[in-house]
């Protein structure tokens, strides 16, 4: 075999990973870490366990994320972003404000009232004091996005005269706290089952009705003034 033939059969050097390869690896690591964190908590899931689950070296894990705490933060924020992008409402054909709010409540709670998210919430609560930046990011990244969805619905209803609101954003914060955060927190604490079943849906409908009762225009009888 000639020297030229030998050269032609040598494998070429491996190129740098493409952006797509890097994103795929990151997604794979987060998926592996997510299951361990949700099952064992932050302290119970070691960097060695994450690397083994993802079939990478611990050096690769740290090179990509810097620390286990950063992996944990990335897992939680990725979970929130992935789900909220899938659930983000593009508009509703429902004719009245009550129906529009029920649609968005159903979308959020069918995702949040599950054993998986109850487990995530327990881990986050346990680490909130230890990682205050994570708690702040979750608040801004998840809670505030949901508030903005609801605020846009309420502002539209206010403009149509369905509601009378001085501050749609403040009203949306109350709605999300009552309708979404409260049942999610009860499920995480084990005070109610992590399921959006008929009983949970009926409770949410009552809460929405009470919320709207406080937001509708009040007609003053001039004869009583």
TrEMBL record:
Pfam families: TetR_C_7 (PF14246), TetR_N (PF00440). Residues 46-65 bind DNA. The keyword Cell inner membrane does not apply. Residues 23-83 form the HTH tetR-type domain. Coiled coil: none annotated. InterPro entries: DNA-bd_HTH_TetR-type_CS (IPR023772), Homeodomain-like_sf (IPR009057), HTH-type_TetR-like_transc_reg (IPR050109), HTH_TetR (IPR001647), Tet_transcr_reg_TetR-rel_C_sf (IPR036271), TetR_C_Proteobacteria (IPR039536). It comes from the Bacteria. Keywords: DNA-binding. PANTHER family: HTH-TYPE TRANSCRIPTIONAL DUAL REGULATOR CECR, HTH-TYPE TRANSCRIPTIONAL REGULATOR RUTR. This is TetR/AcrR family transcriptional regulator. It comes from Sphingobium cyanobacteriorum.
